[in-house]
C-alpha cells in the first residue's frame, strides 16, 4: 500500500496507543517526548542510545520506535537494521534537523533511495509540531503492521519451542490442532517450564499471527491496577488518569491476549473476566461505554486450579469456562534428553551477549547438568548456562563455572532430591555435594591446594577452613601415589 493511502487511512481510522520507544542522546529530550506520549495513553520508554533501545525491545513487542536521526557514530542506522531484524513489525520514525547537516542526514537520504537498504517508515523535520509527530507515528505503526515475513524465509515456519522428547512433541501436536480454532487455552505447569513460550507459539501458528500478541503478568499487579491494565480507563477515573487509555484487551483486538498467573486474580476480578469470556464486552474503569473485542484468550498458571476451586479460592464457573483446552508443560527433569539441546541453544545466545566464543561443555559439566533436578526448570537452565559463560575463562564451560547447586549434580545424585535418611540431617546432606566438589577440584589439580582453591573461586585460607568444617583429612583422602 502506498504511503499516501496509508496517510488517508490513518486520518479516518486512527490506531489506539500502544508501546513506543524514544531514542535520543539528549536524555532530557527523550524523557520529555516519552512523558508526552504517556499523557496521550502510550506506554513510552525513553532511552539514550541504541543499546538501551534494544534492551527495551527485548522485553516485549513494540509498536513504534521514534529516534533521533543524528545519533553519534551512525548508531541510528545500526539501530534501524537491528530493529528490522529483531522486530520487523515495529514502525520506525526518524527525526531530522530542519536542513541537512553533514553526513548523517545525507546517509538517511541515500538509504531512502536504495532498494537494498531498509529505511524508516516516516521522517519528521525539526522543529516538529505535535500533530506532525503523531501523524508520523500513526503512519509508521500502520506500515509496520503491513510488513510480512517473506514466505521464502527459511525461519518463517520455524518453531520457537526446542525439544525432541515425546512430551514436547505431544504439546506441539496440541498446539497445531487448536492454533486456528477460537478455543480458550489454559496452560499449566511448574514455573520456568515455558508457558509463555507456548502461548506465543499458539499465536505464531494461528491465523491471528499478523496481529498483536499482548501479555499480562497478573500476579505482578494489584487488583485496581490490573483492572485498569486489562480494561483501560477514562480521563478522571482516578488520581493521575489525565487521559483516556486503552487496556490490554483493546490492544489485543484481532490478536491474542495472554493472562499469566491467572490464579492470583481476586474474586471480583474473576467475575469481570467471566463476563469478558462470555460476551467479549467490558467497560473501561470510570467509563460507561461498552467495548467489544475479538481476541483469542490464553491463560496460564503454575497452581492447581481444580484444587483452588475445591477450597473456594477460584470460581468454578470461570474454571469451566477457561478449561476448554488444557496444555500441561512438562518439567525439565521429566525430559533430561532435551537438556544438551537446550543448553547448547542458551550457550550460543549467552556467548553472543558476553562477546565470547564458547565451544561447549566439559563432560563433567554436562554430567552435572544431566543429574541436576532443575526445580526452576528451563529458566534455571538458561541462567545456569549464562553464569557459566560469564564466569568461565576457558573455551568450554567447566563444572566449576556452573552454580554450586547445579555442579553438585555431578555426584550422580540430583541436587533437589538427595538420598537423605531420617537420621542423617539436612546439614550433613547439604555438606556432601560440597565435599565432592572439593575432592574433584583437588584431584584435577594433582592435589595442589592453591590450584584447587583458584578453580573453586576461593582463596587457600577459605579452602582450609572448609576442609576443617567438613572434617576432611587430606592425608586419608589423597591417593598414596600423589
Low-confidence stretches: 1-13, 101-106, 109-117, 151-156, 411-424
Terminal Cα separation, in Å?
78 Å
Q: Would you state the CATH class of the largest domain?
A: Alpha Beta
Q: Provide the CATH architecture of the largest domain.
A: 3-Layer(aba) Sandwich
Largest sheet: 5 strands, parallel
CATH topology of the largest domain: Rossmann fold
CATH superfamily of the largest domain: P-loop containing nucleotide triphosphate hydrolases
Q: Output the structural class.
A: alpha/beta
Our count of helices gives 21
Relative strand content: 5-15%
Number of strands: 14
What's the gyration radius in Å?
27 Å
Shape: globular
What portion of residues is helical? 40-55%
Give the neighbour order of strands across the main sheet. 2-1-3-4-5
- Mean pLDDT equals 81
Number of domains: 3
Name some characteristics of this structure.
482 residues, alpha/beta, Rossmann fold, 45% helix, five-stranded parallel beta sheet, single chain, 12% strand, 3 domains, Helicase, Ruva Protein, domain 3
What's the short story on this structure?
By secondary structure, this protein is of the alpha/beta class.
What do you see in this structure?
- By secondary structure, the chain is of the alpha/beta class.
- The protein has three domains: 3-146, Rossmann fold; 166-330, 3-Layer(aba) Sandwich (Rossmann fold); 334-477, Helicase, Ruva Protein, domain 3, CATH 1.10.8.60.
- The chain has helices at 3-12, 27-39, 50-58, 75-86, 102-113, 130-146, 166-178, 195-204, 223-231, 248-251, 267-279, 305-310, 316-322, 339-354, 363-371, 377-391, 404-407, 426-444, 449-455, 460-469, 474-477; strands at 19-23, 43-47, 64-68, 91-96, 122-125, 185-188, 213-217, 256-260, 281-282, 291-292, 296-301, 325-328, 360-361, 396-397.
- The strands form four sheets. Strands 2-1-3-4-5 form a five-stranded parallel β-sheet, with helices on both faces. The chain has a five-stranded parallel β-sheet with strand order 7-8-11-6-12.
- Helix 5 links the parallel strand 4 and strand 5.
- Helix 11 packs across helix 13.
- The termini are far apart.
- The model is unreliable at 1-13, 101-106, 109-117, 151-156 and 411-424 (pLDDT under 50).
Amino acid at each position: 500500500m502506498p504511503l499516501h493511502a496509508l496517510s488517508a487511512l490513518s486520518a479516518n481510522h486512527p490506531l489506539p496507543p500502544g508501546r513506543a520507544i524514544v531514542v535520543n542522546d539528549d536524555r532530557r529530550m527523550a524523557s520529555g517526548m516519552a512523558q508526552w506520549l504517556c499523557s496521550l495513553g502510550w506506554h513510552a520508554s525513553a532511552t539514550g542510545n541504541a543499546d538501551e533501545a534494544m534492551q527495551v525491545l527485548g522485553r516485549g513487542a513494540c509498536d513504534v520506535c521514534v529516534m533521533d536521526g543524528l545519533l553519534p557514530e551512525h548508531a541510528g542506522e545500526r539501530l534501524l537494521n537491528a530493529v528490522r531484524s529483531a522486530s520487523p513489525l515495529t514502525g520506525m520514525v526518524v527525526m531530522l534537523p530542519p536542513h541537512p547537516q553533514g553526513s548523517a542526514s545525507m546517509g538517511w537520504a541515500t538509504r531512502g533511495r536504495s532498494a537494498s537498504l531498509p529505511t524508516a517508515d516516516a521522517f519528521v523535520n525539526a522543529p516538529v509540531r505535535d500533530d506532525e509527530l503523531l501523524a508520523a507515528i500513526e503512519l509508521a505503526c500502520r506500515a509496520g503492521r503491513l510488513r510480512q515475513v517473506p514466505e521464502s524465509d527459511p525461519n518463517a515456519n520455524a518453531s520457537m519451542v526446542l525439544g525432541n522428547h515425546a512430551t514436547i512433541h505431544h504439546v506441539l501436536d496440541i498446539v497445531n490442532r487448536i492454533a486456528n480454532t477460537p478455543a480458550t487455552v489454559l496452560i499449566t505447569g511448574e514455573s520456568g517450564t515455558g508457558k509463555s513460550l507456548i502461548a506465543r507459539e499458539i499465536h505464531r501458528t494461528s491465523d491471528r499471527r499478523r496481529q498483536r500478541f499482548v501479555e499480562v503478568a497478573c500476579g505482578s499487579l494489584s487488583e485496581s491496577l490490573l483492572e485498569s491494565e486489562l480494561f483501560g480507563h477514562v480521563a478522571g477515573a482516578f488520581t493521575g488518569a489525565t487521559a483516556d487509555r486503552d487496556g490490554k484487551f483493546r490492544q489485543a483486538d484481532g490478536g491474542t491476549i495472554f493472562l499469566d498467573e491467572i490464579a492470583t486474580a481476586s474474586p471480583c476480578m474473576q467475575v469481570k473476566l467471566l463476563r469478558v469470556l462470555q460476551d467479549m464486552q467490558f467497560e473501561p474503569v470510570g467509563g460507561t461505554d461498552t467495548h467489544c473485542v475479538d481476541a483469542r484468550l490464553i491463560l496460564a498458571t503454575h497452581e492447581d486450579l481444580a484444587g483452588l476451586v475445591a477450597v473456594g479460592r477460584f470460581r468454578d464457573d470461570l474454571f469451566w469456562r477457561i478449561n476448554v483446552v488444557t496444555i500441561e508443560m512438562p518439567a525439565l527433569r521429566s525430559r533430561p534428553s532435551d537438556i544438551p539441546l537446550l543448553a547448547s541453544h542458551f550457550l550460543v545466545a549467552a556467548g553472543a551477549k558476553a562477546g565470547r566464543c564458547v565451544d561447549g561443555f566439559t563432560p563433567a559439566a554436562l554430567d552435572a547438568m544431566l543429574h541436576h533436578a532443575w526445580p526452576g526448570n528451563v529458566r534455571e537452565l538458561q541462567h545456569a548456562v549464562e553464569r557459566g559463560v560469564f564466569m568461565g575463562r576457558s573455551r568450554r564451560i567447566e563444572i566449576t563455572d556452573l552454580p554450586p547447586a547445579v555442579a553438585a549434580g555431578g555426584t550422580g545424585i540430583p541436587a533437589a532430591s538427595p538420598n537423605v535418611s531420617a537420621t542423617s540431617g539436612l546439614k550433613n546432606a547439604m555438606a556432601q555435594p560440597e565435599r565432592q566438589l572439593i575432592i574433584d577440584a583437588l584431584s584435577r589439580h594433582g592435589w595442589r591446594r592453591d590450584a584447587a582453591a583458584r578453580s573453586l573461586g576461593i582463596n587457600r585460607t577459605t579452602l582450609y577452613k572448609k576442609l576443617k568444617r567438613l572434617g576432611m583429612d587430606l592425608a586419608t583422602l589423597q591417593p598414596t601415589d600423589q
